[in-house]
Amino acid sequence: MPTRMFGEPVKRREDPRLLTGQGRYVDDIDLPGMLHAAFLRSPYAHARIRGIDVSKARELDGVVAVYTYDDIGPVKQRMPLLIPRPALTHPATRYALARDEVNHVGECVAMVVATSRYVAEDALELIAVDYEELPPVVDIEAAVAPGAPLVHEELGTNVAAHYVGVVGDPERAFREAAHVFRERLVIERSAGMPIETRAVLAQWDEFEERLLVWDSTQAPIVIRNALAALFSLPPTQVRVIAPDVGGGFGCKIMVYPEEVLVPFAALTLKRPVKWVEDRREHFIGTNQERLQIHEAEIAVDADGRILGIRDRFLHDAGAYTPYGIIVPQITACQLPGPYKVPNYHVEFRAVFTNTVPVSPYRGAGRPHACFVMERLLDRVADELGIDRAEVRRRNFIQPHEFPYDVGLIFQDGAPTRYDSGNYPAMLDKLLAMLDYERLQREELPRLRAEGRYVGVGIACYVEGTGIGPYEGAHVRVEPTGQVYVATGVPQQGQAHRTILAQVVAETLQVPLELVQVVEGDTAAFEFGSGVYASRSAVVAGSAVALAAQRVREQGLQLAAEELEVDPRDLVVEDGRVFVRGAPERGFTWGQLAQLANPLRYAYAGDLAVRPRPWTGPALPPGRQPALEAVEYYSPPHATWASGAVGVVLEVDPETGMLQFHRLCVVHDCGKMINPLVVEGQIHGGIAQGIGGAFYERLAYDERGQLVNASFMDFLLPTAMEIPPIEVEHLETPSPLNPLGVKGVGEAGAIPMPAVVAAALDDALRPFGVRVTRMPLDPSAVRALVAQGRASSVAE
Amino acid sequence: MSATTATKLHRVRVTVNGVRYERDVEPRLLLSDFLRHELGLTGTHVGCEHGVCGACTVLLNGEPVRSCLMLAVQADGQELETVEGLAPSLEQLHPLQQAFWEKHGLQCGYCTPGMLMTLKAFLAEHPDPTPEEVREAISGNLCRCTGYQNIVAAALEAARLLRQSS
């Protein structure tokens, strides 16, 4: 019997190192002669730079170099626009060091390189910058008003992109609808906030004649390609390694100014240079996400079936658009969620503000979409007196309707086409977990009779995962019997070294311990794009599966030749390839790797060196000296995971605090490679989603200053705020990829604002509250209650 | 202020994980930087440098402290314990480490050393905690990956293992 490793909750192979303090994050690497960089950042949201005087800083003992825009040679060009789109008519990217204007607090103005970080920071205080303050643009609604000050004067507008997507005939649907409901819905600024900040260490390796960069990034290949182009080096002369990375959540996929400036300094000074972002820098220097303001309306028939949706929204792009308009585009495409929306008009404007640039943060536009859709459905249910679960059931795409086309082009340029799912079963399972019927009939009325404010909310979501363009994998059986696997996707905690090893171990039937996965090193694998959009397991996993399958076929072929049998008479089990029914006639994988390679082995192990059974060249045409394969997987389009979440929570109207009684999730990410890892991803996403529902709001004042730029003021949920999470799974395989898997990385974060809003409404029904904004906090909840009380008095 | 390089160095003598170290350091050097970059004990991580995230937690004379909120000179003459000292040997993990591995209590691993050190001190005083007590104990340690659930499970499992072995 083959041993099953795919789908098993095996312990992570990453852990022993990380648990014993042997992890290697960028800042853990100290090189001889290493220098330290620090950045002077703009204290103003919008200002012109009239002059910079660095002379005093240059004189400070220990300072090796000070750079301003004029000093950075090839880096003087604008940073790249990573993802252009036709709708992005007015893009803007920054200079690595501000040239003559700063557009957000935190923008890099000068770089100091010194013998220690402490000295480098001393030197920052000696730099004098003559700023002329310009009017800051902070409020996105004000930014699109006529006569608003402009973030980028030269563009003539604050609107970076205007996108319109239309499916069916929304005008007619709204004309003919029995009911139309409108909502203004707001999701505020937030950020991923990995516990490890960004970090870059660069060295010109004069022995290897190579630029060597360790970067806490989700996309080392992208960085490698950018650096090679920027410095006119052959790509093979640039090696970028993402070593252990302490969380990413989207914000570490970019080409940031520091990621080119630190290598530039190392090249120029011919000494290693390290920069590690501090937390304050992270708050003002690393991309953020979330703020959107939606004016949404839904048209339904008398039974609550959706006839159409119209949504117009403003998306805060921040000061620059290095990552294009991916986030609002995802919002637009995913807004319909698991429901049939036959007529749909979506329109957004991405608006420049003098704030930190916006790029994806876990969820990447999806929490916004889910919040809008689910709020609209709750409204329909409440207005028509239909149970909130029932209104969802009436609108689900049915299992037989896949593949299902939403009708818009998704973020990857492919159709928004759902591949598979079973949404009714998902909701039924959730309702069973919640014991929904009894909850509604008995428990909630009982608690409410005690004067307690308890409510239930449910929310359903889809997640487009595993998008292209492609990823690749290299799989090789070593003559030692170990299996080498390399891919282009680095991890930030997603257990690639375990789950990709499981895929290979299953295919070759070798013990997991023999599979070594190398990731995040451009010297090991040079093609691919990185970790985003919940795609590693789907895209890299599929590439690994294809490569492992080819190696398996090579092994079968070779064994068949050696044993003079038909390959179909061979089986692969217990780390060996042997004749069915005659296990003694066969080879271990290590033996096969040795047989493949017509060399004499210094340590032949259990395989005696034997004469070749053929004459002529040692490697006849078509034969390779290793059992190895490189394969790529390119998905036709995203594969769509889905989920349903339900919460029961209690509100204290006096303090405004929430308490979760239950938090239940049913998630369907197709076939699971490792349920332990899947559940970990869901837990983490939900915790971030709870942050996005009740704690994490980045607050800019009218001058564009981020007023809560510390962990004292911007509250990440602690273990006290996150309740126990109950998870159950559905496994509806994806028909798109060889493993049948779908991504799970962002799942948990998507529905939490929607579901917390729903439960809050329900808990606060006596006050007639409708939650239309996320995240809330205790004072916002108290304000809602006060507002409800006031309006009930007025009536 | 260009006095930095003229700053007088101070002798710091500490015992870390049972090993004695002596270094001359600037008075402003953080204990976290001292451990990581002077002693090469990089298992202690730095997440915020303002005492909130808890990633840099080490034990000072058995008590958990934030090594980013202390100067190295303040640790002079004292005993420190970091994550590198937790496992009894290269082959054997500490029950806390074992339990974190078993229960998938870590993802990116960055907050993990701080969690482990916080929990080591906590479990020494609370050998049989409730889940709620564990949550409170680690509420000064931020984790952005796990949602804490498996960390709580790991702490309870570690407590059980420790009770068994004592």
How would you describe this protein?
The complex is a heterodimer of chains A (795) and B (166). Chain A is of the alpha+beta class and 795 residues long. Chain A has 19 helices and 29 strands. The longest helix of chain A is centred in the last third of the chain and has 28 residues, at 536-563. Chain A starts with 14 loop residues before the first helix and ends with a helix. With 166 residues, chain B is an alpha+beta fold. Chain B has two domains: 8-85, Roll (Ubiquitin-like (UB roll)), CATH 3.10.20; 95-165, Orthogonal Bundle (DNA polymerase, domain 1), CATH 1.10.150.120. In chain B, 33% of the residues lie in helices and 15% in strands. Chain B has a five-stranded mixed β-sheet with strand order 2-1-5-3-4, sandwiched between helices. In chain B, strand 1 and strand 2 form a beta hairpin. Chain B is globular, with a radius of gyration of 17 Å. The chains are: A alpha+beta (795), B alpha+beta (166).
